[in-house]
Specification:
The protein is mainly α. The protein is 58% helix and 0% strand. The longest helix has 18 residues, at 74-91. It is extended.
């Protein structure tokens, strides 16, 4: 997929400036690299059944959060929603 054809706005001076600022900010970091399972530590696999409407909502969230060079998967979106929901519920008294 050619990113410039899909997102021509990436060629604007503003986009280049944002990219430069991002790269400068990320210098010395892992450049947004996803941690491996070994680096994350032990996890437990859990399966759930979700209706098609909920799947569509998760896919929409994944699409909204994705950026060129950073694909947010349905699983990522589910984790984000789960953590956000848990934090909101845990804050309640």
């Amino acid at each position: 997929m050619n990113l410039v054809l899909s997102w021509p706005e990436l060629t604007t001076p503003e986009a280049r400036e944002r990219l430069g600022a991002y790269l400068e900010d990320e210098r010395g970091h892992d450049m947004g690299r996803t941690k491996t399972a070994k680096e994350k530590g032990p996890t437990v696999q859990t399966a759930v059944r979700l209706d098609p409407e909920l799947i569509a909502r998760l896919d929409a969230i994944a699409g909204k959060l994705s950026r060129p060079g950073l694909e947010v998967t349905r699983t990522d979106a589910l984790r984000i929603c789960l953590l956000t929901g848990l934090q909101a519920i845990e804050k309640e008294k």
